[in-house]
């Protein structure tokens, strides 16, 4: 970077500091502190969100455990229900068999009763006969006893069969009643288990729905946590860059100060050496600054008009002081170069409007602010007294005028020490 470019950069940084009211180092520290505060707040938010995610994951685990428990209970109830249904089917089959057996016994009983009824009807039709009559009516003496015995045994067998059928019917009826009660009990148990299974299934569906909602919430929280962590990493990298830049600036500033100190020490040594020279040489050396000062004091002002604001006077925003002067001049008045030089900057700067900076060599820069209609561009040379622009109108000021500033080796100096008095 050329010498004049470094000087322009220093001037622009100084002008930016005037606008914000802080020097560049203070601005950098303020920006870094702001970012550090933001990073601290971001880390706190990440910590809080991590705790929330942890709680959400714990809730999700509890819900999943409840779902597993409900699934196990539903399977257990389903197995019980299946066992009851199997037993109920067996009882239903046995009941149907008993009902079939009862129908068969009822038909057999009806047949026996029908045969017995016919026999009684036949005996009634024959009329009452004594055993002597039955015996006398037989041709063979042995036949009466055989007939009577046959008749007795036949009746007895039928009576025994009727009793057996009746007993079997009663047993079947009793067993059917027992099976019916067992079946009713099984149906009640089945109904209760089915009700429990339905309630468990409803609970499972509710927990499943809650699990999905928790999963959705957890996914959103994890996504936000990932985004915040990424933001924190980016901000941390930014702070590291700012710290590196601040260290670099501090190193440059330390080097600059060391160089200035070395130059000052060299100057002091040179002055000490000059004191040992002859008195004539000492007087000659003492006259040179006055000659230079007289030459510098002959520079023409950039515009005609009174000085409204003087160098070093306090600014309205407090704390900072003016590093130049403000000439009162009507809008459109010509702005002229104070000395021969070259345009090193022609553009706009926030807070100063359109500005132009001229390099007059020997480390002297002149700045013209709040101008318009610039007639020269960066890199062009100008002559002393040549018009370079016109006075503009600053909307923030009541009166139009030109802000003018001189810098010697990057440091602001009082323009009135260099300009010719009117």
From TrEMBL:
Residues 1-26 form the signal peptide. InterPro entries: Cell_wall_metabolism_enzyme (IPR050570), Dup_hybrid_motif (IPR011055), M23ase_b-sheet_dom (IPR016047). Residues 322-415 form the M23ase beta-sheet core domain. Residues 269-289, 388-422 are annotated as: Disordered. It comes from the Bacteria. Keywords: Coiled coil, Signal. Pfam families: Peptidase_M23. Residues 39-115, 211-245 form a coiled coil. This is Peptidoglycan DD-metalloendopeptidase family protein. It comes from Thermithiobacillus plumbiphilus.
């Amino acid at each position: 970077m050329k010498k004049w470019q470094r000087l322009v950069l220093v001037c622009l940084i100084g002008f930016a500091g005037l606008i914000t009211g802080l020097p560049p180092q203070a601005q950098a520290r303020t920006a870094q502190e702001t970012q550090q505060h933001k990073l601290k707040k971001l880390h706190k938010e990440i910590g809080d969100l991590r705790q929330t995610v942890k709680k959400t994951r714990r809730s999700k685990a509890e819900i999943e455990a409840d779902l597993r428990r409900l699934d196990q209970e539903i399977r257990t109830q389903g197995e019980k229900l299946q066992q009851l249904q199997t037993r109920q089917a067996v009882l239903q089959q046995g009941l149907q068999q008993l009902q079939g057996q009862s129908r068969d016994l009822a038909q057999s009983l009806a047949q026996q009763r029908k045969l017995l009824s016919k026999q009684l009807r036949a005996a009634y039709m024959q009329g009452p006969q004594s055993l002597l009559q039955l015996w006398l009516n037989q041709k063979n003496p042995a036949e009466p006893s055989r007939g009577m015995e046959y008749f007795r045994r036949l009746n007895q067998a039928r009576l025994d069969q009727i009793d057996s059928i009746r007993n079997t019917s009663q047993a079947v009826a009793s067993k059917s009643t027992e099976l019916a009660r067992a079946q009713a009990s099984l149906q009640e148990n089945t109904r209760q288990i089915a009700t429990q299974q339905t309630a468990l299934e409803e609970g499972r569906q509710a927990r499943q729905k809650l699990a999905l909602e928790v999963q959705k919430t957890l996914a959103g929280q994890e996504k936000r946590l990932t985004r915040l962590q990424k933001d924190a990493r980016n901000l941390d990298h930014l702070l590291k860059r700012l710290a590196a830049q601040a260290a670099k600036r501090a190193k440059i500033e330390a080097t600059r100060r060391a160089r200035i100190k070395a130059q000052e020490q060299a100057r002091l040594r040179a002055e000490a050496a000059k004191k040992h020279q002859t008195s004539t040489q000492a007087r000659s050396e003492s006259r040179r600054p006055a000659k230079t000062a007289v030459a510098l004091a002959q520079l023409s002002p950039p515009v005609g008009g009174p000085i409204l604001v003087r160098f070093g006077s306090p600014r309205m925003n407090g704390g900072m002081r003016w590093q130049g002067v403000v000439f009162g001049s009507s809008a459109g008045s010509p702005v002229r170069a104070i000395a021969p030089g070259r345009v090193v900057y022609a553009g706009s700067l926030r807070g100063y409007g359109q500005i132009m900076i001229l390099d007059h060599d020997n480390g002297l820069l002149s700045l013209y602010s709040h101008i318009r209609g610039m007639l020269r561009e960066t890199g062009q040379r100008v002559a002393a007294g040549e018009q370079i622009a016109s006075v503009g109108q600053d909307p923030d000021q009541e009166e139009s005028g030109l802000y003018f500033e001189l810098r010697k080796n990057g440091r602001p100096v009082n323009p009135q020490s260099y300009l010719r008095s009117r």
